[in-house]
Fold this sequence. Notes:
The structure holds two protein chains of two kinds.
Chain A: H1 3-34, H2 41-59, H3 62-83, H4 93-115, E1 131-135, E2 138-141, H5 142-164, H6 166-176, H7 178-183, H8 188-210, H9 220-235, H10 240-265, H11 271-296
Antiparallel strand pairs in A: 1-2
Helix pairs in contact in A: 1-5, 1-6, 1-8, 1-9, 1-10, 2-3, 2-4, 2-8, 2-9, 3-8, 5-6, 9-10, 9-11, 10-11
Chain B: H1 2-23, H2 29-52, H3 60-80, E1 83-85, E2 91-92, H4 97-119, H5 124-143, E3 154-155, E4 161-162, E5 165-166, H6 170-193, H7 195-205, H8 207-212, H9 217-243, E6 245-246, H10 253-266, H11 272-291, H12 296-309, H13 314-319
Antiparallel strand pairs in B: 1-2, 3-6, 4-5
Helix pairs in contact in B: 1-6, 2-6, 2-9, 2-10, 2-11, 3-4, 3-5, 3-9, 4-9, 6-7, 6-9, 7-9, 10-11
Amino acid sequence: MTATLFAEQTLNGLQFGVMLFLMAAGLTLIFGIMDVINLAHGSLYMAGAFVGGTVTARTGSFLLGVVAGAAAGALIALLLELTVIRRLYRRDHLDQVLATYALILTFNEGVKVIWGPAPIFLAAPEMLSGTVEILPGVPYPAYRLAVICAGVAAALFLGWLIGRTRTGMLIRAGTTHRETVQALGVDVGVLFALVFAIGGALAGLAGVMAGPVLAVQVGMGEQILILAFVVIVVGGLGSVKGAMAGALLVGLADTWARAFLPVLLRGLLPPSSADQVAANLGSVAVYLLMAVVLAVRPQGLFPRHA
Amino acid sequence: MRERLAAAIGLCLLVAAPFVLEAMDEAFLLSVLTRMLAYALAAAALDLVLGYGGMVSFGHGAFLGTGAYVAGVLLHHRSDGSALVAWPVRIGGTAEALIAWPAAALVSGLLAAAIGAISLRTRGVHFIMITLAFAQMVFFLVLALPQYGGTDGLMVPGRNVLAGASLEGDAPLYWVALALLVAFLAFGRSTMAARFGLALRGARMNERRALALGVPVYRLRLAAFTLSGAVAGLAGAVLANQSSFVSPDLLSWQRSGELMVMVILGGQGTLFGPVLGAIALLAAEEELAAITEHWMLILGPALLLVVLFFRGGLWPLIAGKRGDG
C-alpha cells in the first residue's frame, strides 16, 4: 500500500461521490419541496444509462449519448410527475413508497423487455480512453477525471441555478415556506414539474456517466438509490449542501473501505475467501458511517432548518 | 361480529385446505400454501409496526432473512457435525425446532432492537430510508460469510424436528406454520386491544399527546419493533424449512417491499388483513408467472393502481370495518 494507491483510490472515491451527489441532489430537492419520497429515482438513473448507451452505440458519439441520457431522465421524470407523483403529494409517505416501489418493478421489467436481461456495453469515448499522469509516474484513467469534472460542473450549475436565479429563489422558498409561495401566486404545479425534471436530468446524467465505469444492467438504479438515501441521511434531508458533503463522505468511505479492506484481510484470512469477505464488508462501511452520524446527529450534518 | 365470522371462515378454509387438496389430487400445492403462511406471519408481524405503530419499516426483509439463516445455519452445522462456535464453549448445530426457532426469533429480535434503537430516533422519511439502509447492511454482512454460501445462498440439509417428531413431508410443516400463525394472530389481536396496543396506537395518532399523558413512546415503539422483528425471524425459520434453501434474496430490499405491499393490500392495522394480503399477492405472482415471463409488467402497474385508487385493503371489504391502523 503506497501513496500512489491512496491517491488513486481517493480520486475514485471523489468520482463515486460526484455521481452520488447527482442522484442525492435530485432526491433531496424533490423531498424538500414536494415532501415526496421517490424510490423510482433509481429508475431514472437506469433509464439514462440504457438510453445513453443505445444512442452512443447508434451514433458513435458519447456526447450525444450523454445528452440523450439526461434528456431521457428529465422526460421520464416529467411524465411520472404528471401521471403518478402528482396524485401522491397529498398522500402519506407510505403510499408514496408503495406507489414508487410499484414503479420500480414496472421499469425494471420494462427495461428487460426492451433491452433483454443481459448488461449492455457502454464504452468511454475514444478521446478519454487513455490515462493522465496525475502525479509523476502515476497514470489515472482520463475518463474518470472527466466524470469528476462533469460532476463538479453540474454541481456548480445547480448551485448557480438555486442560489442566483429567480427560479432558484422560488425553489428555495418552496422548501421552507411552501404555503407562502403558493399564496403569492406562484404556480406551484409548474414549479414542482420543473424540479422533478431537473432531478430526472441529473439522475439520467449520472446514469450515462456511470455506464463505462459500472455495469449498465437492470437493478443498477436501486443499488445507487439506497446509497443516495444514506447520503441524504448523513448530509441532512432537503439540503443540497448536505447532499454534497454526504456524497463526498459516502463516496470516499465506500471506495476506501473496498480498496483497503482486502489488503488488511489478506493477512488474516485464506486468500480465496479474503476478497469476497472484504468486498462485502467494504460495502458495510458506509452504513456504519451512517449509524455513527445518526447516533451523534440524528438530523444529519446539515439539517434544513438549522 | 362480521369480522370474527370472516376470521373464523378463513381459519376453517385453511384447516380444510390439506384435505381438499388431497381429495383433488393436488397435494403438492400444500407446500405453496405453507410458504404463503410463512409470509403471512411475517406480514402480520410487520403490521404491528406499520399499521398499529405507524412506523414505516422498509427493512423487515432483513429480519425474515436473518431468521431463515439462523435455522439454516444450525441445520447445516448439525448435518456436517461442525461447530457453530468453537471457543470458549463448543456450540454445534441442532435440528430441534424447539431450540432453533426460538434462536431464530431471538437473533432477529436482537437485530431489530439494535436497528430500532437507532432508527426510532428519527421520524417519517428518515425512518423509511434508515431502515432500508440498515437492512441493506445486514444483506452485505451475510454475503460476507463465505462458509454459508455467500451470494449463492445456503442449501439446507433436511428439516427441523419438533420435540423429536419429524417435520418431513408437506403436511406436518403446514400444520406447524398454521399453528404459529393462529397463535400470533390471537396474541397480536389481544395485545393490540390491551394497554400496550392502545398506547402504541395513541402514540401514532398524536405523539405529543401520548408523551404528555406519560406514555414512554420511544420504549413502546422499540418494544413493538423488536417483537415484530422476532416474529418475522420465526417466519423466516419456517421458510427455510419449506424451501430447504436460504437465499440472500430473502434479506433484500425487494423482500422488504413485498412485505409492505402484503400489509397494505390486505389492510393495515387489522392483522388478519396482511394474512389475506400475503396469500393474495403470492397467488397473483404464481398465476401471473404462469401466463408470462414478464409478469412484473402486469403486477407493477396493478400495484400502482391499488395504491392510487383502492385504499383500505381487502380485509375491510370483507370484515365491513376499517383497521385500527
